[in-house]
Amino acid sequence: MLQAQLGQVLLGVIVGKNARTLARWAHAKVRPPQASEKLLRDTFQVLEILCSVHSSDVARAWFMGMNPELGDASPAEALSEGRSRQVMAAARSYMAAA
């Protein structure tokens, strides 16, 4: 679901892995390391919140756009830096304003 809605490139930026690794994880050939799995789960939770009201295209754009609540980093960048809680707070703030 994450790859389908965010795309391999954006998801690769978030978890710091290439498309081949993501494909292996998606097809259950290899289980992601625990830290990567947590990051994928966090990303999925944020995506679910956004997609509860917005289309997946809007959610994908939100992940790529500069966000003032994240010091003008994109949510994808912030997630890759381990700032999942800040990204979740930014997503909730965005939803409250919608």
Shape: globular
Number of strands: 0
- The whole-angstrom Rg is 13 Å
Low-confidence stretches: none
In which range does the helix fraction lie? 55-70%
Q: Structural class of the secondary elements?
A: mainly alpha
Through-space gap between termini: 24 Å
Biggest beta sheet attributes? none
Write down the domain tally.
1
Element pattern in H and E: HHHHHHH
Percent of sequence in beta strands: under 5%
The helix tally amounts to 7
Mean pLDDT: 94
SSE layout:
Layout (H helix, E strand, L loop, with lengths): L1 H5 L1 H8 L3 H8 L7 H18 L4 H9 L10 H6 L3 H14 L1
Helix pairs in contact: 4-7
Question: Could you walk me through the main structural features you see in this protein, from its secondary elements to its overall organization?
Answer:
The structure is a single chain. The chain has 98 residues and is mainly alpha-helical. The chain has one domain (2-97). The protein is built from seven helices and no strands. Helix 4 (34-51) runs parallel beside helix 7. The model has no long low-confidence stretch (mean pLDDT 94).
